[in-house]
Write the structure tokens for this entry.
Amino acid sequence: MENKRSLYKQIAQYIKEQIINEDYKITQPLPSLRYLSNHFNVNIRTVQNAYNLLERQGYIRIIQGKGGFINDSRSTDIYSRKKEIILELKEVVHESFYLGIKKQELLSLLDRT
């Protein structure tokens, strides 16, 4: 895992990608905090922070005593999540420009997705 972002954000991104790629199924619980802490060799609190972030973003729901589950509800606040993504994207674009990545390179990446 890269060191620039917080570990919990890296873990959250990993889980988010698993959800988007449908590697995790809606009907099954997500891996336990203990399993992921062992898998990533991090403190269990780090994984818990990742799950909490994903819950705030609307990707998962946490049920006390049962674990985390993919949120299949359409009731999440999409508008506020879009605002968060735009802010995150602006941050990435600014950092990219600072590091010398050209606008055309970024647009090319977007075209490939």
